[in-house]
Amino acid sequence: MVAARGCRPKGEKAVKPAHIAIIMDGNGRWARARGLPRTAGHRAGVESLRRTVRAAGEMGIRWLTVYAFSSENWSRPKAEVSDLMGLLKLFIRRDLAELHQNGVRVRIVGKRDGLEPDIAALLGEAESLTAGNTNMNLVVAFNYGGRDEILRAARALAIEAKAGRLDPEDVTMQDFEARLDTADMPDPDLIIRTSGEQRLSNFLLWQAAYAEFVFVPCRWPDFGSDDLAAAIAVFEERDRRFGGAAAQEAVS
Ligand code: FPP
Description:
Layout: E1 19-23, H1 27-32, H2 38-58, E2 63-70, H3 78-101, E3 104-109, H4 117-130, E4 136-144, H5 146-162, H6 173-177, E5 190-193, E6 212-215, H7 225-237, H8 247-251
Parallel strand pairs: 1-2, 1-5, 2-4, 3-4, 5-6
Helix pairs in contact: 2-3, 3-4
Farnesyl diphosphate (FPP) binds at residues 24-29, 42, 45-46, 49, 68-69, 73, 84, 87-88, 91, 195, 220.
């Protein structure tokens, strides 16, 4: 294969992504292709999520963020929304013990206000039970929208400025990031989207500034550890410059 410009320079050591974020897309199409209801696709999607968390842990990935339910997903038919809520509850009830046992810290990003009390309580329980774990971080984006997150952070800063606790002239990037749901989390290095769509769909808009994107044709329920390993291998071939010059050009 001809090395495209932007590929990792020869001889440079491959660097694994510390943080992978996944847009788990294609559950509905997976189900339709099998003559099954969409709910069957989401159920198979949970299995795939379970496999992927295990595989990422085994591959030494420290941070995994998954887009489980967007702030726009409420507009889906009521039955589908209720099914997704049920699956989230099931996932936490069934998998929390194993995640905890494996030293996985679970964190949730997204808007908490207005969530049903039982869901909010489960999310809180998952976070508090696993708060001391350090092997791996699983970040579940639930009721999450990038624009909503940015707006909430901007509003929080505005409220503090209005109260006189902050001078708007002095607001830094760090001040802003500290008010995002992802405060204290590293930005994603690699964002994977399954099912062939090539868009961000309001996911991690701020945090994705320098992420590498890998679009995978398979639908989410078919995504496996081989696909994850392949996406990581593609990432490792990329030459990340973060707006600077390529390593070789920077010195010449
Ligand atoms: C996209 O597929 C997937 C979602 C909107 C939800 C992702 C959810 C899961 C993987 C399972 C649930 C997991 C938890 C923990 C809640 P789609 O329905 O948009 O598929 P389509 O584009 O083919 O219709």
